[in-house]
Protein backbone atom coordinates (compact mmCIF):
# COMPACT_ATOMS: atom_id res chain seq x y z
CA UNK A 1 0.00 0.00 0.00
CA UNK A 2 2.68 2.53 1.01
CA UNK A 3 4.95 1.81 -1.95
CA UNK A 4 2.06 2.06 -4.40
CA UNK A 5 0.93 5.42 -2.99
CA UNK A 6 4.46 6.83 -3.14
CA UNK A 7 4.95 5.50 -6.68
CA UNK A 8 1.77 7.25 -7.86
CA UNK A 9 2.93 10.57 -6.38
CA UNK A 10 6.32 10.30 -8.08
CA UNK A 11 4.89 9.14 -11.42
CA UNK A 12 2.26 11.89 -11.60
CA UNK A 13 4.59 14.74 -10.61
CA UNK A 14 6.81 16.13 -13.33
CA UNK A 15 10.37 16.50 -12.04
CA UNK A 16 9.91 14.26 -8.99
CA UNK A 17 12.88 12.05 -8.14
CA UNK A 18 11.56 10.18 -5.12
CA UNK A 19 9.31 10.05 -2.11
CA UNK A 20 9.55 8.68 1.42
CA UNK A 21 7.28 8.08 4.38
CA UNK A 22 9.17 9.09 7.50
CA UNK A 23 8.64 8.62 11.19
CA UNK A 24 9.41 11.42 13.63
CA UNK A 25 12.31 9.25 14.78
CA UNK A 26 14.02 10.01 11.44
CA UNK A 27 13.68 6.49 10.07
CA UNK A 28 12.09 5.87 6.67
CA UNK A 29 9.06 3.55 6.73
CA UNK A 30 8.94 3.23 2.93
CA UNK A 31 10.68 4.90 0.00
CA UNK A 32 10.50 5.05 -3.78
CA UNK A 33 13.20 6.58 -5.98
CA UNK A 34 13.58 7.01 -9.72
CA UNK A 35 16.97 6.11 -11.20
CA UNK A 36 18.00 9.80 -11.19
CA UNK A 37 17.09 10.12 -7.51
CA UNK A 38 19.97 9.90 -5.08
CA UNK A 39 18.68 7.51 -2.44
CA UNK A 40 21.64 7.77 -0.06
CA UNK A 41 21.54 11.59 0.01
CA UNK A 42 17.76 11.59 0.40
CA UNK A 43 17.88 9.25 3.39
CA UNK A 44 20.23 11.65 5.15
CA UNK A 45 18.26 14.74 4.07
CA UNK A 46 14.94 13.23 5.16
CA UNK A 47 16.36 12.35 8.56
CA UNK A 48 17.65 15.92 8.94
CA UNK A 49 14.32 17.37 7.80
CA UNK A 50 12.65 15.51 10.66
CA UNK A 51 14.25 18.05 13.00
CA UNK A 52 12.80 20.92 10.95
CA UNK A 53 9.36 19.31 10.90
CA UNK A 54 9.40 18.83 14.68
CA UNK A 55 10.49 22.46 15.14
CA UNK A 56 7.74 23.75 12.86
CA UNK A 57 5.18 21.61 14.70
CA UNK A 58 6.35 23.07 18.00
CA UNK A 59 6.17 26.61 16.59
CA UNK A 60 2.60 26.01 15.41
CA UNK A 61 1.59 24.90 18.87
CA UNK A 62 3.50 27.65 20.71
CA UNK A 63 2.01 30.41 18.56
CA UNK A 64 -1.50 29.00 18.46
CA UNK A 65 -1.38 28.57 14.67
CA UNK A 66 -2.33 24.91 14.97
CA UNK A 67 -1.09 21.63 13.54
CA UNK A 68 1.58 21.74 10.82
CA UNK A 69 0.23 20.50 7.48
CA UNK A 70 3.07 21.08 5.02
CA UNK A 71 6.64 22.32 4.85
CA UNK A 72 8.49 23.23 1.63
CA UNK A 73 12.28 23.52 1.60
CA UNK A 74 14.14 24.71 -1.51
CA UNK A 75 17.85 24.08 -2.04
CA UNK A 76 19.93 24.87 -5.11
CA UNK A 77 19.67 21.31 -6.43
CA UNK A 78 16.41 20.00 -4.98
CA UNK A 79 13.06 20.94 -3.48
CA UNK A 80 11.59 18.92 -0.64
CA UNK A 81 7.92 18.98 0.28
CA UNK A 82 6.96 17.41 3.60
CA UNK A 83 3.27 16.68 4.23
CA UNK A 84 2.17 15.51 7.68
CA UNK A 85 0.09 12.34 7.83
CA UNK A 86 -0.17 12.17 11.63
CA UNK A 87 1.76 13.74 14.50
CA UNK A 88 4.16 10.79 14.18
CA UNK A 89 4.53 10.33 10.39
CA UNK A 90 5.01 12.46 7.30
CA UNK A 91 5.67 11.99 3.61
CA UNK A 92 8.50 13.76 1.75
CA UNK A 93 8.55 14.40 -2.00
CA UNK A 94 11.85 15.26 -3.69
CA UNK A 95 11.67 17.42 -6.81
CA UNK A 96 14.21 18.78 -9.25
CA UNK A 97 14.33 22.60 -9.05
CA UNK A 98 12.33 22.84 -12.29
CA UNK A 99 9.82 20.21 -11.11
CA UNK A 100 6.11 20.93 -10.84
CA UNK A 101 5.73 22.02 -7.21
CA UNK A 102 1.98 22.64 -7.47
CA UNK A 103 1.29 19.20 -8.88
CA UNK A 104 3.55 17.63 -6.26
CA UNK A 105 1.66 19.35 -3.44
CA UNK A 106 -1.65 18.20 -4.96
CA UNK A 107 -0.47 14.60 -5.29
CA UNK A 108 0.83 14.61 -1.71
CA UNK A 109 -2.56 15.82 -0.48
CA UNK A 110 -4.26 12.97 -2.33
CA UNK A 111 -1.75 10.51 -0.88
CA UNK A 112 -2.36 11.93 2.59
CA UNK A 113 -6.07 11.19 2.28
CA UNK A 114 -5.38 7.70 0.97
CA UNK A 115 -2.75 6.88 3.60
CA UNK A 116 -4.76 8.31 6.49
CA UNK A 117 -6.73 5.06 6.60
CA UNK A 118 -3.51 3.08 7.05
CA UNK A 119 -2.30 5.33 9.88
CA UNK A 120 -5.67 5.57 11.66
CA UNK A 121 -5.52 4.42 15.25
Features:
121 residues, alpha+beta, five-stranded antiparallel beta sheet, 3 helices, 26% strand, globular
Describe this structure in words.
- The chain is of the alpha+beta class and 121 residues long.
- It has 3 helices and 5 strands, in the order αββαβββα.
- Strand 4 (79-84) and strand 5 form a beta hairpin.
Measured distance between first and last alpha carbons: 17 Å
Helix content: 40-55%
Q: β content, as a range?
A: 25-35%
Topology as a string of helices (H) and strands (E): HEEHEEEH
In terms of structural class, how would the helical and strand content be classed?
alpha+beta
How would you sum up the major sheet?
5 strands, antiparallel
pLDDT averaged residue by residue: 90
Low-confidence runs: none
Q: Please state how the strands of the largest beta sheet are arranged side by side.
A: 2-1-5-4-3
Shape: globular
Radius of gyration from the alpha-carbon trace, in angstroms = 13 Å
**Number of H- or I-type helical stretches:** 3
Per-chain topology:
Elements: H1 2-12, E1 16-23, E2 28-33, H2 39-63, E3 70-74, E4 79-84, E5 89-95, H3 101-119
Antiparallel strand pairs: 1-2, 1-5, 3-4, 4-5
Helix pairs in contact: 1-3
Amino acid sequence: MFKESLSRVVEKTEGATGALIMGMDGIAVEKVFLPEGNESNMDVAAAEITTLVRGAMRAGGDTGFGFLRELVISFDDIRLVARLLTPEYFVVLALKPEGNLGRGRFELRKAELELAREFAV
